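User: quick one, fold this
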Amino acid sequence: MLDRPGATEVVAVEANTRAYLKCLVSKELLGIPSARFKCGDAVRYLEDYLAHGGAKFDLCLASGVLYHLLNPVAALDLMTRASDRLLLWTMYYDEDYIASREDLALKFPKVTPMEYAGFKHTLHQQEYRQALNYKGFCGGSAASSAWLSRAEVIGAIEHFGFEIVDIGFEEQDHKGNGP
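Assistant:
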C-alpha cells in the first residue's frame, strides 16, 4: 500500500511471530523492496526510536493496533511524536453496543479511570479469554487489552496536538467485535 506509490522506506513492526513470517513471505512474493519488517512490540520500537533521536516519519499508520494495547493513550502520544501525520484504523468501546451483546459484554469485565500526560480517560479492559487458544491470530501479545471510547480516541489525538482532518468511514451496524 505504501511501497507502490513510491515510498523509499516502510518500517513495519509486527508482534505476532506467525504474522511476521507471513509479512516476510509476502514481501518476497509480491516484491515490496521498500518494506523493512521488524518482529516485536511497536510501542517499544517507537519509544526506543524517539529516545535515540530518530527523525520523524512521513506517516505513522496504525491499522488494527490500538485496541490490542494495554495503554492506547501512551501509544497515541508516541505516534503523534513520531510523525506529523497519523492514519489510524481502530475499533473503539461503545457501551450500548457492547452491552447489547452478551458474548462481548463478558469480555469487558473491568473499567479503570486513568490519566496520562494530562489526558483523563477510561480504559475498558478487554480479555481475550478462549481466543488465546485459537491457532490463528487473536490479537495482542498480552492476555488482555484496553479499549477507549470513540470520543476518547479522538480526544487523545487532539490532546497531543493533532487536528482530525477526516474520518473516512465508520461501520454503523458493527457486525464484528465492536464499532
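User: anything notable?
Assistant: The mean pLDDT is 91.
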